[in-house]
Amino acid sequence: MTTILNVVLVHGAWADGSSWAKVIPLLAANGMAVTAVQLPLTSFEDDVAAVQRALALVAGDVVLVGHSYGGAVIGQAGNDPKVVRLVYVDAFAPDAGESAGALFSQFQSAPLGAELRPDAEGFLKLSHTGAYDLFAQDLDEAEKAIVYATQGPVNGAALGGTLSEAAWRTRPTFYLIGDEDHAIPRAEQERMAERMNATIAHVSSSHVPMLSQPAAVADIILKAAA
């Protein structure tokens, strides 16, 4: 049984709201009302505003969930008073004055960084190797092809957007760590989760457990809602 009935899901870079497609039915089956935000990925401010608009339409308390870059977005948007729990899924967890990009630059080893391809307007796209071997390596070939073809390029400047106030400072927080993540290494996820004093769970997955291990993702969200 859940006590918080609303969940808002925030995808990361190189993705869209459909990345939660396997998780949404599991949450709905447990009585949760689910919203999956579509981030424009044009700037940090635009992305935060998209989440704020989604929250404005929800009646009641919310579990706010962020994957990857979406962790930075929920860290800012999660200051909304409707948000009472936060869930990070293989996600960046900046503090006030920090950004996802600043944290990424400090990571000891993040193989995905070498597979980002900028265009003339500063939007970053994953290479074939990045998508297939480092981002979603535990999916089957058909799913990898979908991830690569439908990826949402992110404006590089969005990754530099800094938080004015970190919502995790004032709310119970949960963190799901993908142990085989090559985008945000496990050790870095553990460091961020411990800094937040989060309730931590592990899953044997790539950077996209919502696609490869959706039951584990749904489980930690339901625990946050309970």
Write the SSE topology:
Elements: E1 6-10, H1 24-28, E2 33-37, H2 44-56, E3 62-67, H3 70-77, E4 83-89, H4 100-106, E5 116-118, E6 123-126, H5 128-135, H6 141-150, E7 154-155, E8 173-178, H7 186-195, E9 199-203, H8 209-212, H9 214-225
Parallel strand pairs: 1-2, 1-3, 3-4, 4-8, 8-9
Antiparallel strand pairs: 5-6, 6-7
Helix pairs in contact: 2-3
Structure overview:
- This protein is α/β, with parallel strands linked by helices.
- 34% of the residues lie in helices and 19% in strands.
- The protein contains nine helices and nine strands.
- It has helices at 24-28, 44-56, 70-77, 100-106, 128-135, 141-150, 186-195, 209-212, 214-225, and strands spanning 6-10, 33-37, 62-67, 83-89, 116-118, 123-126, 154-155, 173-178, 199-203.
- Strands 2-1-3-4-8-9 form a six-stranded parallel β-sheet, sandwiched between helices. A three-stranded antiparallel β-sheet has the order 5-6-7.
- A hairpin with a 4-residue loop joins strand 5 (116-118) and strand 6 (123-126).
- The longest helix has 13 residues, at 44-56.
- It is globular and about 40 Å long.
Largest sheet descriptor:
6 strands, parallel
- General shape: globular
- The percentage helix is 25-40%
> How many distinct helices?
9
How far from one another are the termini? 7 Å
Derived from helix and strand composition plus strand pairing, the structural class reads alpha/beta
Mean pLDDT: 95
User: How many beta-strand segments?
Assistant: 9
Write the H/E string, N to C. Answer: EHEHEHEHEEHHEEHEHH
**Could you name the ranges where pLDDT drops below 50 across 5 or more consecutive residues?**
none
Taking Cα atoms only, what radius of gyration do you get, to the nearest Å?
Answer: 16 Å
Strand order of the largest sheet: 2-1-3-4-8-9
The proportion of strand residues reads 15-25%
